[in-house]
What does this fold into?
Amino acid sequence: MSDAFANASLSLDLRIADPRWGALGDLDALAAGVLGCAATHMKTAGELAILLTDDAEMRALNRQWRQLDKPTDVLSFPSGQPEIPGQPQYLGDIALGYETALRDAEMMHRPFEGHVSHLLIHGFLHLLGYDHIETEDAQVMEPLETEILAGLGWPDPYASGPYAGDADAHDRAGD
It folds into this structure.
């Protein structure tokens, strides 16, 4: 890691639109810890916004931006803004939907905090331009997610369960 990156930071603007997210405790600390680990792993600094909301809002966002009339667990909106020397890079926005995220965590028999950590990392990587639509792209993105999650003490989300070859669960990832 370069000295320049060691002094860089990730700034988060967290908005909690659904109070049920409070079940996870200190959401600022959770998001900062997860995304700080991801930013360090990816040697990236900048600013991003996170919206923790419900399925109704996620459905509206998904319909507006992806023309899919259904709720989803995570949506990512890369900023696409050019880098301005001397200014923090605005990376974009990540939105998470409570009901779908919780339902998927329960279906996969995973701790909700671990699943939310995965969704945040997944969304963050999308902000950086990673994707998984094509197999070759997924073979790059998924190991990055696994490595970052391992740094947080969470197991490989692709090793077993619905994510292992389940296209519908993968589609619900909302990217």
User: Anything to note?
Assistant: The chain has seven helices and four strands. Helices lie at 3-6, 27-42, 55-66, 98-107, 112-127, 135-151, 167-171.
